[in-house]
Amino acid sequence: MTEPMLSRQKMLDFIxxxxxxxxxTLEALGDDQLQAFxxxxxxxxxxxxxxxxxxxxxxxxRHVRGLMAGQSVxxxxxxxxxFNARIIGHVRTxxxxxxxxxxxxxxxxxxxxxxxxxxxxxxxxxxYDELEGEIVGxxxxxxxxxxxxx
Length: 150
Prior knowledge:
Elements: H1 8-19, H2 22-27, H3 31-40, H4 46-68, H5 80-91, H6 96-116, H7 125-141
Helix pairs in contact: 1-6, 1-7, 3-4, 4-5, 4-6, 4-7
């Protein structure tokens, strides 16, 4: 587990201070640099990158809810690459604006989950690692230029 552990409030602050401005920060690069950034991160365009992040927030939230319910969490994909390929397939017919709206909706959803979890959830290593990975780790995997390390 990552040390020091992030509190609920620090996770919420991270969602608000980093992820809330993520799209605007990257769009400020200009379209050519934004699309190059997405390709450097393994996605055909920014639309697919943003959809990827939102989909993983939802998947991570599903895992956390399952763990909170005492369920074993199953997936219908064999590995992360398969999941990511599905995301790219699903967004082909969606507009860039629709994907941006979905990104913001997913950001609000994961913030709501963090806010509503009982305190004991943050003591569960599986739940904590899932949240920390989706909220902080994933940010630094796709951080805007100049923010590549924690």
